[in-house]
Amino acid sequence: MITDARALRPQFIPRDMVHRQGAIDQMVSIIDPLKWSVSSDNISIFGPSGSGKTTLAKYVLRKMERSHLDYRWGYVNCMSESSKTGALHRVLRDCRLGQDIRRAGTPASEYFERIREFDGVLVFVVDEADVLDEPELIAALADMEGVCLITICIDQDEFHASLRDQERVRSRLRAAETITLDKYSYSQLSDIIRYRVDHGLDAGRVDDEAVEYIADIAAGDARRGIAYLRRAARHVQDGSAETLTVDVVRDVADDAQANLRERRIRYLGTHKRALYDLVEAGGPDGVSAGELHQEYQKSVQNPKVRRTVRRYLDSLERYELIESYGSTSATRYKTIGSKAAEAARQT
């Protein structure tokens, strides 16, 4: 059934990215190193979850990397690494510039010096940029010669509003070229799912109706649609069905959602994971904002300030891992899709 598992993996970058040609052309024109003798532009990519923001950035950068010498790029997802030195460490290792640097105890200045020493073009992709602990890193990187910074997050207005006391950062973001992606349409998502089928599965064992059903229930979210396809393909691969049908997708849909949620939890950074675990420990009734903050302060070393914790919780909500309810003065949090949440629905 599965002919190439790579095509079913969340991090897979397709050889051809469909339905984003306009954004691809725009991005290529912005980061073309041949134009950098004059200046380099930075880019901000916005769009709903599963709209292809990260895939777009990686697709274009891999394409540019194949055709230009002295050109390197690195990626960091701030849901995993949100500290200033943590983000720098990740992108420099990705660029093959910091393999010898030990993360513990290394000041940010040493990372910046490595960047200045590189004789070539560097592109840094900062995903989920709105949860950076120190947003001034955006301005610092955006101002460096020979560096193109690509920031990615969901909502432009919310991102800028969260930086109301960071005028230098807001200024750099306003000056950046903006690429906004819309949610995929039903027909576009059907094409994306079919591409994965053609490149990763025995297409003769996949019903067209199943592809269309996946596109329908994924509701414009390519990441979710690919998760449904991956779980359904594994179901057939294991011998539980002969072909991948609508009924197979229905049978595995809940498991696919659970797998997607578990993957998101697995990649959370230390503080975000601590907050998630504390919310989950609150059970079906959840935990109040005040109780959560108190328990968080006791459970981690060097806890973040309340404002940063608030941003972390907002990001967990956007990831559909937790939800908040109640009045502003009595906000409570509970997990979504966990055993506690399931128990709450059954009572």
CATH topology of the largest domain: Rossmann fold
> Which class do the helix and strand fractions yield?
alpha/beta
CATH H-level superfamily of the largest domain: P-loop containing nucleotide triphosphate hydrolases
> What is the CATH-assigned architecture of the largest domain?
3-Layer(aba) Sandwich
- For the largest sheet, list the strands in their spatial order: 2-3-4-1-5
Following the backbone from N to C, one meets helices and strands in this order, namely HEHEHHEHEHHEHHHHHEHHEEH
Strand content: 5-15%
Q: Roughly how many Å apart are the termini? A: 40 Å
Description:
Keywords: ATP-binding, DNA replication, Nucleotide-binding. 51% of the residues lie in helices and 11% in strands. With 347 residues, it is of the alpha/beta class. It has three domains: 20-180, P-loop containing nucleotide triphosphate hydrolases (Rossmann fold, 3-Layer(aba) Sandwich); 186-265, Helicase, Ruva Protein, domain 3 (Orthogonal Bundle); 269-346, Winged helix-like DNA-binding domain superfamily/Winged helix DNA-binding domain (Arc Repressor Mutant, subunit A), CATH 1.10.10.10. The strands form two sheets. A five-stranded parallel β-sheet has the order 2-3-4-1-5, with helices on both faces. The longest helix is centred in the C-terminal third of the chain and has 21 residues, at 246-266.
